[in-house]
Amino acid sequence: MNYEEIVCDLCGHNDLEIIWKAPHSEVQSVVCRSCGLAFLSPRLDESGTRSMYARYSQSYPLSYLLNPANNYWQAALDRSAFISSHVESGRLLEVGCSYGHFLNCMKERGFEVTGIEPSAESIGLAATHWGVENIHHGVFEDVNLPSEGFELITFFHVLEHVRSPMTLLKRAHELLVDGGILYLEVPNADHLPPTVMEYLYMVTCQHLFTFGTDTMKSLLAASGFEILVCKNHPILPVYASNMRVVARKIETRATPTQHFEVSREQMTRYHKGIDELGLSFRKQVDQWLKAGKKIAIYGGGLHTQAVLEWTQIGDAVALIVDDDADKWGCYLAGVPIVSFAQLLESDVDAVLVSSLGAEQVMYEKLDTLADRGVERCRIYGS
Predict the structure, then answer these.
(1) Which of 57-71, 155-169, 329-343 is predicted least confidently?
(2) pLDDT value at 237 more than 80
(3) For residue 2, which phi and psi values (nearest 5 degrees)?
(4) What angle do CA 337, 338, 342 make, to 5 degrees?
(5) How many Å is the Cα radius of gyration of the chain?
(6) Across the chain, what does the average pLDDT equal?
(7) In this structure, are strands 28-32 and 16-21 parallel, antiparallel, or unpaired?
(8) Tens digit of pLDDT for each residue in 53-108?
């Protein structure tokens, strides 16, 4: 893998304080001493980033994506109801529209919808299942769109992934009509929880930038936007730390202000929490190994992939259990994935529950095994 160092995307300075260094790569979490923007430098270069996304991509069964109770639908319903109180109609552009759940909700509210999405599979599903067809295949920087062509542009958990947030925001400014509305959501450094997934996003350079309320306001003001709403708004367990921002296009731009001390405290607290989390559940696993217990992990998704890579315990895990039948018979990091019924028939002695959003439900499902002496451990719960 090749890495690159960058200057601050907000103010252009290169006076950076190192907050954390990744254990197995050159990646570093830094804070700009001039303005307080938090980001990664060095980070993977563009080629390395493409390889990383190919490795850590996650797909979902069609039955899940169509289920109105899933996270995509619930988030889309919440977002569409909220933004409709600020913009009643018009032309909408969603950057990074995924499977089209939000576009479908806004289309039903009477908006003329356009999307941009790098995944051809996601675009096909949006067209096939809810008739959202005006989606461009590609990335925002490369798609040809009309200047001042939209009343509303949205970025949902996109800005932290891009190589230059300022570049994206300036282009959004060009594409909005006068007084047009920008609606975005990002992980909120003011409330960022130490989770396995947040650690994965940072160590793999998926989240290149981390925004607190202060640095987000400074970033938008420097890009020609007036803040209307900026608050933490949790959406489901997977978006417990979720900054919701609505801003209006204006013609003036402000000089970035200084928020170094606040950002340094936020990022230091976050990385300390991550270290403590890893030590906590690794301690339990080590105790199991010392006692000679046969270990299983409940959860066969990206969260478990992150746990295995973070803790290097793959050799000690006999089984991975998942409720998705499409995964049964597959392998994750060389470990076989089996059904819950197979877990009940196995001779495992201990189970680590690996999930962010469904941890409590999965933990309770293991009551039957606990009754016969099988130990269990949660990563987040007590």
Answers:
(1) 57-71
(2) no
(3) -105, 145
(4) 155
(5) 22
(6) 92
(7) antiparallel
(8) 777 666 777 887 888 888 889 999 999 999 999 999 999 999 999 999 999 999 99
Tokens of 179: 């007084």
Contact 236, 357 (CB under 8 A): yes
Partners of 137 in beta bridges: 117
Domains and CATH numbers, the chain: 44-251 (3.40.50.150), 291-378 (3.40.50.20)
Strands 335-338, 331-332: pairing is: antiparallel
> According to the 3-state scheme, what is the secondary structure of 179-238?
EEEEEEEECEHHHCCCCHHHHHHHHCCCCCEEECHHHHHHHHHHCCEEEEEEEECCECCC
Q: Between residues 55 and 187, which one has the greater pLDDT?
A: 187
Residues 6+ apart with CB under 8 A from 113: 92, 94, 103, 106, 107, 132, 134
Question: Can you name the residues that pair with 210 across neighbouring β-strands?
Answer: 38
Decide: 68 and 104 in contact? Cβ < 8 Å. Answer: no
Phi, psi of 367 (to 5 degrees): -55, -40
**Burial 295-322, CB ≥16 within 10 A → b, else e:** bbbbbbbbbbbbbbbbbebbebbbbbbb
Element (H, E) at 342: helix 340-345
Name the residue among 234, 249, 235, 189 with its Cα closest to residue 213. 189
Looking at the chain, the whole-number percentage of residues with pLDDT higher than 90 is 72
Band (pLDDT 50/70/90 cuts) for residue 212 is: very high
The pLDDT value given to residue 94: 98
- How many other β-carbons are positioned within 10 Å of the β-carbon of residue 255? 9
In the predicted structure, residue 382 carries a pLDDT above the cut 70: no
Distance CA 197, CA 194 (A): 9
For residue 302, which amino acid is it?
A: L
Name the one residue in this structure whose structure tokens are 């979490």. 29
pLDDT of residue 381: 78
